[in-house]
């Protein structure tokens, strides 16, 4: 901090953008809401899928995903899971990664990977039901 | 904090190696560990949906791996991770209300979350093997 005495920057300019992002409460609430939704959806999916897919055949998978309730449930499960896990991984990255370039890269990947997977998975379920 | 030096004689915060192991510590570490594992599981889940949508020829590439012993072990570990993260997540939702935070209750609920993580995949296996 020795150079601060000679800096041309104002005291306000030095501290600006180094404080809280003011998004913490939204993150906290989103984590809780998604966790309540996932507690129900994941429990339903594991039991329903295990019972329907135990033969492990392609047809059993198609039969399962072609049921409207299952298709909607799987889409909800996928989208909410990806959002919840991105929020959680954000906490992990901010806790453990200090190097700014690595942190920014991982934070970017943590947005892009869930987005790409979500788009692909939702399209997959829709394609199975409405595709040609 | 570049340039800031710590006076040598001041105590530093005890780290993981210093603390006596106790169950609430294990429950906290496992929550993060299973969360990261489930991030991987969600990626596999999304890819599985896309492969199913790609058609029977593509699905035939992965179907043998899902029913093979190593695939079954991975699925078992995913169910166990999910069961733990679910049980401990509910424990955290209870903590958020301010309840169950004294050491005795927190220890008991941590043991229940661990027990559920062991019992749930076994219970699912029993349901599939002997049940419906």
Describe the structure.
- The complex is a heterodimer of chains A (132) and B (132).
- Chain A has 132 residues and is mostly helical.
- Chain A has one domain: Up-down Bundle (3 helical TM bundles of succinate and fumarate reductases), CATH 1.20.1300.10.
- Chain A is elongated, with a radius of gyration of 22 Å.
- The mean pLDDT of chain A is 92.
- By secondary structure, chain B is mainly α.
- Chain B has one domain: Fumarate reductase/succinate dehydrogenase, transmembrane subunit (3 helical TM bundles of succinate and fumarate reductases), CATH 1.20.1300.10.
- In chain B, 76% of the residues lie in helices and 0% in strands.
- In chain B, helix 1 runs antiparallel to helix 2 and helix 1 crosses helix 3.
- Chain B is extended and about 70 Å long.
- Chain B starts with 22 loop residues before the first helix and ends with a helix.
- The model of chain B has no long low-confidence stretch (mean pLDDT 91).
- Chains A and B meet through helix 2, helix 3, helix 4 and helix 5 of A and helix 1, helix 2, helix 3 and helix 4 of B.
Write the layout of secondary structure elements.
The complex is a heterodimer of chains A (132) and B (132).
Chain A (H helix, E strand, L loop, with lengths): L10 H5 L8 H29 L5 H8 L2 H29 L3 H31 L2
Helix pairs in contact in A: 2-4, 4-5
Chain B lengths: L22 H32 L1 H12 L1 H28 L6 H28 L2
Helix pairs in contact in B: 1-2, 1-3, 1-4, 3-4
